[in-house]
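Continuing from the previous page of notes. For each protein in this section, the sequence appears first, followed by its structure tokens. Read the first protein now.
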Amino acid sequence: MDRIFKLPSTTFIGGNEKSLPLREILRRLESTYCRHIGVEYMFINSLDQCNWIRQRLETPGVMDLTSDQKRLILARLTRASGFESFLAKKYSSEKRFGLEGCEIMIPAMKTVIDKSTELGVESVVIGMSHRGKLNVLANVCRKPLYQLFTQFAGLQAADEGSGDVKYHLGTYIERLNRTTNKNIRLAVVANPSHLETVDPVAQGKTRAEQFYRGDGEGKKVMSILLHGDAAFAGQGVVFETMHLSELPAYTTHGTIHVVINNQIGFTTDPRFSRSSPYCTDVARVVNAPIFHVNADDPESVIHVCNMAAEWRATFHKDVIIDLVCYRRNGHNEIDEPMFTQPLMYRKIKSTKPCLDKYSEQLISEGIVSEDEVKDVKEKYDKICEEAFERSRQETHIKYKDWIDSPWSGFFEGKDPLKVNPTGVIEDTLLHIGKRFSAPPPNAAEFIIHKGIERILKSRMEMVENRVADWALGEAMAFGSLLKEGIHVRLSGQDVERGTFSHRHHVLHHQTVDKATYRPLCNLYPDQAPYTVCNSSLSEYGVLGFELGYSMTNPNALVIWEAQFGDFANTAQCIIDQLLSSGQAKWVRQTGLVMYLPHGMEGQGPEHSSARLERFLQMSSDDPDYFPPESDDFAVRQLHDINWIVANCTTPANVFHILRRQIALPFRKPLILMTPKSLLRHPEARSSFDDMIDGTEFQRIIPDGGPASQNPQGVQKLLFCSGKVYYDILKEIRDKGLESKIALTRVEQLTPFPMDLIKKECAKYPNANISWLQEEHKNQGPWTYVQPRFETLLSGQRDIRASDKQTGNWFGSLFGGKKSQPPPKEQTEAPDTRVVSYIGRAVAASTATGSKNQHLKELANLVEEALRI
């Protein structure tokens, strides 16, 4: 044991010494690897990176801290513990998901932020679930304490929205970091109870901030994600988010992940909650170093946090800090953990809190006195008491104080009813069309596929004929926005080419790898950037990412496209918890667009339906309420809805609805059912005349044929939405029924265009009214449109319509709280016609898998539609 050995170059335990006795070698290695830090890094396939870690772990004295540094840890630990104690004292019966057992997380996060700020970071985006959220808001972000305490008071909201529980709210703070004397921006993203759902959202927000700052290497903006141990191992979105970490269009150049490892998930212990040895094993797939550290050893935790921040700044890769700790109070403060983990909780009850242990350590080292420890505690308790007294004077909760991405200057000075024009001059359409249809400028050298040559040629012919198909209409919307300085980002599975080979926004050199040409990036010398990027095969993670991206800047068009609309069901959590209800819960607007290919093409049950009925069911317009008709009816409806659901049938309408996303004075998500067969349907074309100055989005497209010339003679009025229009139109023409059947398309389903549909019904007084759809009766729009037809035909009106004109119809952003729909009275003679249903019968599956059966169902549908 006393024999001297020469030390190899792969270890740093010797410091300046080149050789050591075996006894000392073992002692130093055990001191490094067998105490309170366990590090996994040997799987990393870079010797430089492995040596970097070794050097910071093995070098003698590397973990030594100064007295001032130890005092700072104690002060921060005192605040973290004091905050939880204060809440426990004042709100003993309230759930708050406190940090007792892992109070060190607050000093840990502050250390990561301090070190990162020192290394150049100016903005930090934090994503976390509820455990410790209030403490992070109070002691990391320094959210005013009185605002936190008002959340416990059960006050009414002073502004728009239904609100959310206190530990789901986000915030945004700009302040001076006193440790580094540099300004720092901290944003905590609002989160639902679905534990890891916030991960991709925070990543998207981080990526967007980096993009708009020109921070291409992630040196100024970074993200910190906090996880629970059971959720980190169990939630698939963690894996989806991890796999975005090094993809060129999604990387945030390194994320610091902090796992609050309570060693138990609600009541489930690790033996039943994961198959891997460690909860963090999912991180090994991206070669991230994993630092396991005992959360009751503050100095080891701080050392690991400094290492993690330096790793991220050096290599711009993910890193994991696993804080191995416990929950003192069970799942929440009113839970009884002894039911399920009696032995563990007997041990926890006899375990001293980390603050007590560390205070005793520093007192024994002579760094602080007992009086100093007591003084720091009392000072913080006094701060909390003063904030508590102030909070009792508040009469309302203001959710605007909790927005995680304030859009400064966006809403101010705008007419809330003014929508900017969406039509553009014809020269712009021609220029974009020609650029989009032209081969690369160096066509002699850049060899494109023969099929692409044919596509570009047919596109150019359309441009010359002043007509657009779907792909051209979309490209003109994008191009005209880029010309106006609006960044456009299109993301999803195979979006560059398009799943149906219709888009081709990236042309590939046929003989040179990685040589590409992007026509829409080369329209104008001073245009805004256009990002089109194929995503990983993920819906949940990528939709969350794009949602976070869209929340950062209102002046950008961000689109996520599902490969088939049916596949959006694996992103349902994002849709339900964040997209449909984000504004109501968190006063958090977004203009995100979801493209969902939808339509019954005989392709079977997983390639037919984007589940249109689900989006309509989650729409927040009242089926029994007909708002007062006025010139600004459409924009008022749009403001008051939670999102827009549309099923367009013309390239011009797609052009306008995409541009309208930016033209509106506010932002709403747009759920757009996109076509498959209509991408190439010869009838699904639009003249440039429908996109030029003076034109706009058509919420409905009335029948423009013989029926409209003699409405009195029309026997049947069919309303429909989407592709089925073209199926029925052909049969009406073939059978010579154009003068007897009027066919009207409802292009915007939510908010429902009651005013226009009412006029359309009145236009054909002798016609039977039917709703026609290709979907099954228990699916598609029928259950949504039926009660709204009843309301608009009933002749009832809001008896306080004049009040609506004062502005009270609008939410908090425009100076008033949205009122409940007032009572009605009969103001017009009711239209006694009943709207009948035409479409497929009810079914459990969205479509048949048999092509013959599909055609038979379609024939029956057409036959019923044409029956007069």
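Done with the first. The second protein uses the same format. Note its length before scrolling.
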Amino acid sequence: MPDVAWKGLSSSEVAERVEAGQSNLVKDSTSRSLAEIIRSNVFTLFNGIILAAMVLVLITGSWRDAVFGFVIIINTGIGIVTELKAKRTLDRLSILVASDFLVRRDGRDVEVPHNEIVLGDVMWIRSGEQVPADAQVLRSWGLELDESMLTGESRTVRKGEGDRIYSGSTAVSGMALVQVDAVGEHSYAATLTAQAKVYKKTVSDLNKGINTILKFMTFLVVPLCLLLTWSQIRTVGGWQAAIATGEWRQTVVSAVAGVVGMIPEGLVLLTSLNFALAAIRLARRNTLVQELESVETLARVDCLNLDKTGTITDGGIAFDRLIMLDGAPHAAAPDEQATLQALYDLAYEEQPNGTGRAILEALGEQGYAPAGIDVRIPFSSARKWSAVGYPEQGVGIVGAAMSGGGSSAFTVPGGIWYMGAPEVILAALDGDHADVLEQVNRCAADGERVLLVAHCPDTRHVDGDWSWFESDPRLLASARPVALVLCSERVRADAEETLAWFRDQGVRCRVISGDNPVTVGAIAARVRLTGDRRPVAMDARELPEDIGELARVLEGVDVLGRVLPDQKKAIVQALHAGDHVVAMTGDGVNDALAIKEADLGIAMGNAAPATKAVAQVVLVDSKFSHLPDVVARGRQVMANMERVASLFLVKTVYSALISLGVVLSQIPYPYLPRHITYIGALTIGAPAFILALAPNTRRYMPGFLRRVVRFALPGGVATGLSVLFAAWLLPGIMGWDIADSDADLASLRATCAIILFTMGVFVLARVATPLNSWRGALVAFFAAAGVAGMFIPFVASFFALQVPTGRTLTATLIALGMSAVIFALCLAVVPHVWRWAEDRVHARRRS
């Protein structure tokens, strides 16, 4: 090794690199600032319409008619708080753990912080440390890295001279001297972090539908508001008379009543509140929802990509069993207990890998402890085996536990014991071991990790001197296979039941892993990923690069192994190309890009910070079994929100129809903004919130807006016509002079409010069906509450309500009867007209 490598950089060289910006400092930034978050939530189309309407009403001095404006504050507050929480999470995002590292400078070892490492530094990587920057190995002393967070491969990787190591991996054993060749934003971990930090708003079909309604209403509201104002001014004798008498204030309030009624402001608020409530309920089950809109996505998922490690398995390795091989030809063939003792000693290294730790843990619980050995050859990924040497006479063990219980004395035969990759060891031994190799392959096909234990009892040429073996470790051809050691990844106890639930719900699950496809396929079969059918496994290195072709291949594949991070992202994109709504689970940094790309990213609680930061949902206790609860909660919210959205859209339909009728017939607006506030709260807002909490597991399907409009049209048209007919006919029946008498106009508006309330109850009953349960009681309660409010002086005064008496009561009953007939006719006729219109549109598109 060149002397400069041992010396490292000089102080002046370090200063030059820092000046040139070649340090390991990464600038933390997200794509959205605090000002941008506030601006995006405050300056929305919805807020603009409501605020303008509220300001107009406040200018008139009629503050009671402006209470609808409070929905802006609540809705905006929910949005800002949610996105600020997401921003804080992204700001804390870091793949790398900030700590001090040992670097050689000016010929000495010095501790420097993570951010002060510079390009070209010569650095020590020691067991237990996370690699802070990309580097090349100058010399290795048995360095093994856990790169699972970067690649998804659960096995540790041995690194030798000339090999590259990447930031974000962790040293699990050994040490190495390395030279840094990429720092800061140019390092592998920083590149992944930068891509993961890009802010992405969850797409909500519900919010898209609401925004479509708002955009449509904007084009309708502005001209209609002007027309309403003009028509109301006409009813009081023109602009001069309106300004002279102060009637302009009432005309503004009347125009706002039409505008506010057309905007489903309660639906926007209820959506945010229900998303938030669903998030609170899920939090009680250790499931963190980081973006409220993702609750809706839960309901639409039809494709779930599962990372094996950390999702189906818990990432740990378990020692399953020892299989003794029959037919050992030599007389000193060891028994099972002696072999288990040798296995324990073989695993008892200074820095055992995951398999070694699993063996030590399992056998340690059975009472095994280290025995006296003469020599140890540690496991090497280059050799693929480890070895221990016992004295020629063997080692006697007294009082050791037996696997079946109790204890006994036994002797571990002397000689050399090997443990390692079966194909490597068997290839070096004399004789034909095809039957053993076939048995190994059968076990591997079942998802087991298979190691071979071999024993060479012939130590006559050793004579107690092991220096020849230490200086030149080798497999002796005279050794004989003794046993197979079977280990496997620990499968989560809840995995099979959870996957069965998803199958029953019509959600296609796939396992995507960086591990060997045979191993992953076997684990998938063990948890019955595809039920009775054996999963189809494929090596990701054989996948096409074209997204369209990849989408076709994926339709027939259940398990993918050897998947790279970019491929995971491409797989999600290919499923999107097939019109699937994709959820992706994971725990490693290698999953972060795919989780970001998916419609719904789900991270385990023990996942890397980068992965948890970009996921919309985090399973805090890392239990895969929470996913059915997560999906079911999303389905409940969305299925019920579709039901109650019809209530709000009914108000939009009848408000638009009434406003149009008022403009065309030049009559005073038949009710006040405070009327719509009172009636909307009792027949739409409060009952809708309760209905949205009802159990419902129906999978959500796209087309929210079309279904809601189709359901809302009959009720909206019926309500609008009922109020208009009452406003047109009642003044003549009752002899009211609504043009010159404020009292008569107040009576008409109070009566129309009663009609509006009654029709609202009819619509609520239709939405809440079936009524033979608590739903019927719900409708009855709010109907009674609305009637009771008219008899409470403060409520009646605040909302301008009147109890009809005398001839007014008779006229009101007549109007209500007429409204019931109109409602029945609209329910029968409007759906047919809607279907006819849809058929015409489809026919025109086909032609």
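What the second structure shows: Residues 3-27+95-196 form a domain with the Calcium-transporting ATPase, cytoplasmic transduction domain A fold (CATH 2.70.150.10). The chain has four domains: 3-27+95-196, 205-280+632-846, 287-312+493-622, 323-488. We return to this in next week's lecture.
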